[in-house]
Design brief:
The protein is an all-beta fold. It has one domain: Sandwich (Immunoglobulin-like), CATH 2.60.40. Helices cover 2% and strands 49% of the residues. The protein is built from 1 helix and 17 strands. Strands 7, 8, 9, 10, 12, 13, 14, 15, 16 and 17 form a 10-stranded antiparallel β-sheet that branches. A 3-stranded antiparallel β-sheet has the order 5-6-11, with no helix packed on it. It starts with 7 loop residues before the first strand and ends in a 6-residue tail after the last strand.
Length: 175
């Protein structure tokens, strides 16, 4: 089983740095043929109440040494608001609340989210999955970020986007 990334972030609290690292573990899994389930686990003994950037990210799979999402690689991103039960499109950050040693789950349909092309730090025009993402094979991850690195990233799902704005999940490769 592939591992997922758990990164830490030091939180500023009233001008001082909290020495307890914040750990989040994001997951993205298929819920149905058209929906995804997003899950954030908080293994910390402190509850999470933070403004974060939450995105679904599509990129063309490459070997790890050749892949650096911060450089000039083209990615396709859908920024999400996670305040309700379903993840919906937004153009900013979202408030994420997860209880201590708990988790929170959202559902979303990538075909109804607004997507944009991103190269490095430049974002292109926003549109539907069909309008923005060319047909092809991609890795899809769920990202959470708060400014500069570190970021939290789920294990990728292998997906195919067709020319009609739909995606299908590919069977995982044997390990």
């Amino acid at each position: 089983m592939a591992s997922w990334f758990t990164l830490t972030l030091l939180m500023a609290s009233q001008g001082t740095v909290d020495t307890k690292p914040l750990r989040l573990i994001p997951f993205v899994t298929p819920k149905s043929a058209s929906e995804l389930e997003l899950r954030v686990e908080n293994p910390s003994t402190s509850p999470l109440d933070a403004d974060l950037g939450a995105e679904l990210v599509l990129w063309v799979p490459r070997p790890l040494p050749a892949r650096n999402l911060v450089d000039l690689e083209v990615t396709y991103r859908a920024r999400m608001d996670l305040r309700g039960a379903n993840a919906v499109s937004t153009d900013g950050q979202t408030q994420v609340k997860v209880s201590a040693e708990g988790w929170r789950v959202w559902a979303t349909d990538p075909a109804v989210l607004l997507w944009c092309e991103r190269v490095g730090t430049s974002r292109g025009a926003v549109g539907s999955l069909r309008q923005v993402v060319p047909p092809g094979h991609y890795d899809l991850t769920f990202w959470l970020e708060r400014g500069d690195p570190p970021w939290w990233q789920s294990r990728p799902l292998h997906v195919t986007v067709d020319g009609r704005g739909r995606f299908s999940i590919q069977a995982p490769e044997p390990r």
